[in-house]
Each structure stands twice: as structure tokens, then as C-alpha cells.
């Protein structure tokens, strides 16, 4: 039944019998599609069906082939492979095994890949004490449990050590639906596949981590630690082209921070009219007055006479400046020097290029950015490059400031102290500066 007038299917299932001898009554053998194996005592053990064909990611897969390959492993007594669906409706393979000892995913992947292609490796493996059976003694696939990562990857858990590793681990946890991922866990051992690889690349782009990184690069660096190292190496290479200079702060400004995003302080300074009069008296911009105050404070704090600061004051070009505090006698000199350095043609780079970069700083070093509010909206990408972002906005009766900083590196109490010092210095400057100078 089912084979009438279907010669191709008939030829596939009714094959020559090598055991018939010359007896024409037994010349043909029927291929049942069952999977079985000879036992040492001469009995034949039934294992399942060979014709459980599924289609996953465009590939037609015979589940019995995978089961047969698993049974070649000397430690595995029984094996069943099923196709399941995740919450997004995507199909994946899950392997169920009965074995004497715990087998790692790496071991199982390596064993399957000896004879089968990568797309036939199950995304998950579940070790069972015994295979659930139906009333007729066959494996009951409906009773097989949902995968829960019960087989270990074989990698010792090590938590993320830096921001890039934290972001990668979070992305992997979401895509692979895992609660805990260490930096040495292998993406493919945790159930990763080519489709998830592409989705991960899209997530990396959204997080600003995929600059000049291809899907093949992710495939070649399948652990969090290796991929983070690769990302940082490419980002550092890009950043070497940018004229960014660091600024040293006292060591007590650094310490373990929070992972709840950047900290923000807002404050305002009255007397914008006085600031405008000061700027006009020495032919500079209002921002030069407050940038000078900032540079002077950082010089006092760091003990350095060469203060590095990045500034965004026009268009999308960031100016990398180094202010030599030791060359000025008073604030009037400092205003003019800051204005002169800011307007030089050299030492600038685009905001877009900075957002795609990442900086490996030296010990106790930060990179500050001073910018006009209308020229930039702070994104997570900028906080990978700039530890301190100071926004200035001129209002009708005052100047509004907003300071955001990387609280994963910098202590909030020390940054509060720094901001208070800046406010106090700027207030004294506006109050005591003699415009007749």
C-alpha cells in the first residue's frame, strides 16, 4: 500500500536481498526504515525510525542518521534526536542520550562531526537515566523533556572581566536562552548555529561592537573571551589613527562601580551675562571661559601642566586639545590660549569615527569630552571612548551643565567632589574676574 505506480519509491524501499541465494521467492528485501543494532548476545535491539526527516535552516535532515552516529560512541547506550521549536518559532535539534557517565557538549560535537556535517549537530543535548518508552516498547518522543542545559560544556565558569565581555555574555544569554555564560563557554557548544550567528552580528552592530567585524570573525572566535579580545584589538587599531590623548587622575578616583549605566550630575551657573562680557573683553567664546576653568581645575587635580581634553564646538568635528597650563600667567592668558588651540586646523576627528572606536586606557587615565548641547546626544558608544562628558548649554539667565561619567571605572563620590570643585571655581571666576583687565 502506498507503492502502487510509484516506481522510484518502490526501487528505494524494495531492494535486492543479499541473503536469498538463488531462491527467487526471496530475491527482494523490504527496507523498513527502522534503526536497530546487533547486541553481544545475538539479539537485535530496536532503536527507532530512520525516516524521521525534518527541515531546519534549509537543510533536510534524517534524524536517524544523527542517532546512529551518536550510538557509535562507546559510552552511549541509547540515543534519540528530535526537532523542537524555540519561543520565536525557530526549529532546532535536540539530542537525548542514555550514557554511563556525563559527556560534555564538546565531546559529543566532536564525535558527530567525524562523519556528519555541522548543521546536523544538535543545538542541545539532554542526558537521561532511561529513555521514556511507549506501550509497544519504542522511544516515546512525546515524553522527552525540554532541554535545560543538563549536559555541561566542559568549560570552567569564569565571569566577564570587562565591559566588552559583559556585553557579549549578555547578548549570548539572550540569544541562547541561558541564565549564566562564562567567558570560556563556546557559542556552538551552548546551542549556537549559523542563524543565531547572524543575529548575534546584528546585535553587536546595534551595541557598536561590530566595527569592521564579519560573521566569519565571530565564527573563528567562538568564546566570549576570544571574541572580546578580537573586538578590542580591531577597535584599538582604529583608535590609533585618532589624535586622542589621555588625562591622568589620582588613583583614589578609580574603583569598582555599578552596572546601572552612566551616572549623571546636573548643575547651573548664574551670571551668563558676566560670562559673555568676559568673553567679549578678550575676543573669545563663552565656552572658552568655562573650558579654561575646567582645564585649570584638572591641572590642579592631576598635578599635570599639560591638560588633555576633547571638545565638540562646531559641526561634527571633535578637537583634541592639549592645554599647557604652565605657559599662562593669568585667566585672561588662559582664555586666549584655549581659544587659539581650539581654532587650530590640526588635531580633529569626526564624531562618527569616535563612536566606532574603543580605547584601551593606561592605568589611572581618563579621556574627557567637553561639548555644546546642540551638537551631540550622548550614546553608549561615546562612553566607551570618553570617561567624562561635560555638556554646556547657554540659557537666557544662566549656563546649564550636565556631567556624565563612566561609573564602572570612576567612583561617584570622587566625581561629585570634582563637579563641586568645578562649580565653585567657575563661580569665583565670574564673581572676581575684572573685565577691565
Overview of the structural elements:
By secondary structure, this protein is α+β, with helices and mostly antiparallel strands. 32% of the residues lie in helices and 23% in strands. It is built from 13 helices and 18 strands. The chain has helices at residues 7-13, 63-71, 105-112, 163-176, 194-206, 215-220, 224-239, 272-281, 286-302, 331-342, 351-355, 382-385, 412-432; strands at 14-16, 28-30, 34-38, 44-49, 53-56, 59-62, 76-85, 91-99, 124-128, 247-248, 263-270, 306-314, 317-324, 348-350, 365-366, 368-372, 388-394, 398-405. A hairpin with a 2-residue loop joins strand 5 (53-56) and strand 6. Helix 4 packs across helix 5 and helix 9 packs across helix 10 (331-342). The chain is rod-shaped, with a radius of gyration of 33 Å. The termini are far apart. The model has no long low-confidence stretch (mean pLDDT 83).
Binned strand content: 15-25%
Give the low-pLDDT segments: none
**Oligomer description:** single chain
Gap from first CA to last CA: 108 Å
Break the fold down into its secondary structure elements and pairings:
Layout: H1 7-13, E1 14-16, E2 28-30, E3 34-38, E4 44-49, E5 53-56, E6 59-62, H2 63-71, E7 76-85, E8 91-99, H3 105-112, E9 124-128, H4 163-176, H5 194-206, H6 215-220, H7 224-239, E10 247-248, E11 263-270, H8 272-281, H9 286-302, E12 306-314, E13 317-324, H10 331-342, E14 348-350, H11 351-355, E15 365-366, E16 368-372, H12 382-385, E17 388-394, E18 398-405, H13 412-432
Parallel strand pairs: 8-9, 12-16, 16-17
Antiparallel strand pairs: 1-2, 3-4, 5-6, 7-8, 10-15, 11-18, 12-13, 13-14, 17-18
Amino acid at each position: 500500500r502506498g507503492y502502487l505506480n510509484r516506481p522510484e519509491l518502490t526501487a528505494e524501499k524494495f531492494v535486492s536481498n543479499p541473503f536469498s541465494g538463488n531462491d527467487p521467492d526471496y530475491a527482494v528485501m523490504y527496507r523498513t526504515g527502522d534503526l536497530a543494532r546487533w547486541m553481544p548476545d545475538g539479539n537485535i535491539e530496536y532503536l527507532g525510525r530512520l525516516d524521521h526527516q525534518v527541515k531546519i535552516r534549509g537543510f533536510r535532515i534524517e534524524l536517524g542518521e544523527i542517532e546512529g552516529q551518536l550510538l557509535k560512541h562507546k559510552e552511549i547506550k541509547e540515543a534519540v534526536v528530535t526537532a523542537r521549536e524555540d519561543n520565536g518559532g525557530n526549529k532546532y535539534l535536540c539530542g537525548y542520550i542514555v550514557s554511563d557517565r556525563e559527556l560534555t557538549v564538546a565531546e559529543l560535537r566532536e564525535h558527530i562531526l567525524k562523519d556528519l556535517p555541522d548543521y546536523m549537530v544538535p543545538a542541545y543535548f539532554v542526558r537521561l537515566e532511561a529513555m521514556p518508552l511507549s506501550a509497544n516498547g519504542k522511544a516515546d518522543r512525546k515524553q522527552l523533556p525540554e532541554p535545560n542545559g543538563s549536559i555541561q560544556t566542559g568549560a570552567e565558569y569564569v565571569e566577564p572581566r570587562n565591559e566588552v565581555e559583559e556585553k557579549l555574555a549578555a547578548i549570548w544569554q539572550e540569544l541562547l536562552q541561558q541564565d549564566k555564560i562564562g567567558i570560556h563557554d563556546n557559542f556552538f557548544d551552548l546551542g549556537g548555529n549559523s542563524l543565531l550567528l547572524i543575529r548575534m552580528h546584528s546585535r553587536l552592530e546595534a551595541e557598536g561592537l561590530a566595527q569592521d567585524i564579519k560573521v566569519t570573525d565571530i565564527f573563528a572566535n567562538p568564546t566570549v573571551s576570544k571574541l572580546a579580545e578580537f573586538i578590542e584589538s580591531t577597535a584599538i587599531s582604529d583608535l590609533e589613527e585618532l589624535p586622542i590623548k589621555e588625562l591622568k587622575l589620582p588613583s583614589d578616583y578609580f574603583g569598582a562601580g555599578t552596572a546601572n549605566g552612566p551616572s549623571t550630575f546636573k548643575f547651573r551657573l548664574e551670571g551668563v551675562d558676566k560670562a559673555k562680557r568676559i568673553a567679549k573683553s578678550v575676543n573669545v567664546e563663552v565656552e572658552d571661559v568655562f573650558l579654561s576653568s575646567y582645564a585649570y581645575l584638572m591641572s590642579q587635580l592631576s598635578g599635570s601642566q599639560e591638560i588633555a581634553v576633547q571638545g565638540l564646538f562646531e559641526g561634527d568635528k571633535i578637537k583634541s586639545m592639549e592645554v599647557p597650563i604652565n605657559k599662562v600667567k593669568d585667566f585672561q592668558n588662559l582664555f586666549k590660549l584655549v581659544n587659539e588651540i581650539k581654532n587650530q586646523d590640526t588635531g580633529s576627528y569626526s564624531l562618527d569615527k569616535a563612536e566606532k572606536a574603543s580605547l584601551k586606557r593606561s592605568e589611572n587615565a581618563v579621556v574627557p569630552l567637553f561639548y555644546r548641547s546642540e551638537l551631540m546626544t550622548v550614546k553608549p558608544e561615546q562612553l566607551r571612548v570618553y570617561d567624562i562628558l561635560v555638556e554646556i548649554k547657554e540659557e537666557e539667565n544662566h549656563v546649564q551643565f550636565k556631567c556624565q561619567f563612566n561609573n564602572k571605572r570612576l567612583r561617584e563620590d570622587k566625581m561629585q567632589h570634582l563637579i563641586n570643585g568645578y562649580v565653585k571655581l567657575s563661580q569665583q571666576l565670574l564673581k572676581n574676574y575684572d573685565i577691565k583687565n
